[in-house]
């Protein structure tokens, strides 16, 4: 029999993360486009990001039919957070000549599936791309980064908002994520974690 789950954070009731999820306002509007394969992942960080930001939404799918209306939201500059040769490094709003805040589109999935989302949604692929500059090492201690500088979705969102809206900090958004990681490590045991992931106990 499946364990009862919290309808909001989707975690088992005994491990509900809702008390740790903040309610943070931002100038930036964040839209997380999640590949369907990520929804059942134990560490669904895009969902945590969407729950912790008042100006964020999560959509699940491969093809997003309402993308045109979404991108036409008045008062925002739509961009997609995705690396590439033509991607511009994010800069603080107070250093930008354009007064409009960003509509930050964030694909959520493995690199291959995130690229597939761009391919299947030409409007998304046509958007200007932005990327993070210097980033700290990921706190995602349970998954080996596919390349240097790779972050989980929630970490990427926090880093982007910290840059854009400096000196305001969005680090509080990481509290449920870190608790989730700690819980997974506790469940597997310190020795198993150290053996499989090279971490300390």
Automatic annotation (TrEMBL):
Domain of life where this protein originates: Bacteria
EC number(s) on record? 2.5.1.25
The residues forming a coiled coil are none
Which UniProt keywords are present, listed alphabetically?
Answer: S-adenosyl-L-methionine, Transferase, tRNA processing
Domain (DTW) ranges: 2-189
**Class in the EC hierarchy, top level:** transferase
* InterPro entries (UniProt xref): DTW, DTWD2/TAPT
Pfam families named among the record's database cross-references: DTW
The UniProt entry's sequence similarity note says: Belongs to the TDD superfamily. DTWD2 family.
Spell out the protein name for this chain.
tRNA-uridine aminocarboxypropyltransferase
């Amino acid at each position: 029999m499946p364990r009862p789950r919290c309808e909001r954070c989707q975690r088992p009731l005994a491990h509900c993360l809702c008390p740790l999820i903040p309610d943070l306002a931002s100038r930036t509007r964040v839209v997380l486009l999640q590949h369907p394969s990520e929804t059942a992942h134990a560490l669904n960080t895009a969902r945590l990001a969407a729950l912790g930001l008042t100006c964020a939404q999560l959509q699940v799918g491969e093809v997003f039919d309402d993308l045109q209306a979404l991108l036409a939201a008045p008062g925002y500059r739509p961009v997609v957070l995705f690396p590439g040769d033509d991607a511009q490094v994010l800069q603080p709003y107070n250093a930008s000549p354009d007064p409009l805040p960003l509509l930050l589109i964030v694909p959520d999935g493995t690199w291959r599936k995130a690229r597939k989302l761009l391919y299947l949604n030409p409007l998304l692929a046509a958007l200007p791309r932005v990327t993070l500059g210097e980033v700290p090492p990921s706190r995602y201690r349970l998954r080996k980064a596919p390349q240097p500088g790779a972050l989980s979705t929630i970490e990427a969102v926090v880093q982007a908002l910290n840059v854009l809206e400096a000196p305001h900090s969005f680090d509080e958004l990481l509290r449920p994520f870190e608790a989730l990681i700690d819980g997974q490590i506790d469940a597997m045991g310190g020795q198993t974690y150290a053996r499989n992931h090279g971490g300390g106990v």
